[in-house]
């Protein structure tokens, strides 16, 4: 529980420092992902100290802020559409791509086989690649289909 509280605190603290919407969104997502990775690394099944959470959150926040600054609203719309199509209807291993000709930014989602979780929701792991300003970042995650048909990311890591 202490780890969850630390992750949430770091996420909101770092994202609140940002003035722009894009930077705030990027910082929020980067901090959350970085804290989760840092938690997994520092814990290693032995009840880690939490230093990894802090370091991961800071690193993720900085990277996410940079990506968020460069990504515009149209980029996010195209990312979301590619993610939804990939998770909803693409076969495992087939990439759903997006590209914004105005910014030159692009990316892809590659879904894996669907499985059901304990609540009966269909979930899929995926690999996401985003190229912004010539810099490519890769992340992995898991999303579950919600009752309204939307896909919610339940786990993400870089």
What does this structure look like?
The protein has 4 helices and 5 strands, in the order H-H-H-H-E-E-E-E-E. By secondary structure, the chain is an alpha+beta fold. It folds into 2 domains: 69 residues, no CATH class; 85 residues, no CATH class. The protein has a 5-stranded antiparallel β-sheet with strand order 1-2-3-4-5. It is globular and about 35 Å long. About 13% of the residues have low confidence.
Brief digest:
This protein has helices spanning 2-16, 21-43, 51-70, 73-89; strands at 96-99, 106-116, 122-132, 135-145, 151-157. The protein is an alpha+beta fold. It folds into 2 domains: 2-70, no CATH class; 73-157, no CATH class.
Judged by helices, strands and strand pairing, the structural class is: alpha+beta
**What are the low-pLDDT stretches, counting only 5+ consecutive residues below 50?**
4-19, 44-48
- Please provide the count of β strands: 5
N-C termini distance: 23 Å
Total domain count: 2
How many strands, what sense, and barrel or not for the largest sheet? 5 strands, antiparallel
Rg to the nearest angstrom?
A: 16 Å
Order of helices and strands: HHHHEEEEE
Number of helices: 4
| Cross-sheet strand order for the largest sheet | 1-2-3-4-5
Give the helix proportion (percent range). 40-55%
